[in-house]
Amino acid sequence: MQRTFSRRAVVCAAAALVLLPKTAHAQDYPARPILILCGQPPGSGPDTMIRLYADVIGKSLGQRIVVDNRAGAGGIVAANALTQAQPDGYTLLVVLGGMHTIIPALQNLPFDPISDFEFITLLYASSGLLLVPAARPSRSANLLITSDPNPAGLPMGRRASGRRRT
């Protein structure tokens, strides 16, 4: 037995299929501001980058994006705040890679850095630089180490990445 459908039935079915996905969602995301926790202090590299992203993404989504700096303990404070937040997609976290690589090897954490988080994307890549004053004759790392009579006494600056607990 062959079935035939009226033109009206076909048009109604097609319209239902097109409209169904739009009406099936209770609300579109994002329906309220998004909070991005930053594990570094205001003005730091990660803070500056995420604020640039937040401005562009917020305009694109038509929703406010709030950056909340929760600096401390190499990102642990911000990461722990994310584990306490509702898992609804409205709280995100930006930390440096050490938060999930180096710090767990140095101390016990109040969360599991692997299973308690889901990686979304790499926001940016940066590199560290080794610099010497222009007047210094050492123009390479090898020369810097071998030409200085006391290389252990060379002044240096670095960002703290946690400490080993014993």
What's the arrangement of secondary structure elements?
Elements (H helix, E strand, L loop, with lengths): L6 H18 L9 E5 L6 H17 L3 E5 L6 H9 L6 E4 L8 H4 L34 H7 L19
Parallel strand pairs: 1-2, 1-3
In short:
By secondary structure, this protein is an alpha/beta fold. It contains 5 helices and 3 strands.
| Main sheet properties | 3 strands, parallel
Mean pLDDT: 78
Distance between the termini: 81 Å
The helix-and-strand class reads alpha/beta
Task: Please characterize this protein's 3D structure.
- This protein is α/β, with parallel strands linked by helices.
- The protein is built from 5 helices and 3 strands.
- The chain is elongated and about 65 Å long.
List keywords for this structure.
166 residues; alpha/beta; three-stranded parallel β-sheet; 3 strands; 33% helix; elongated
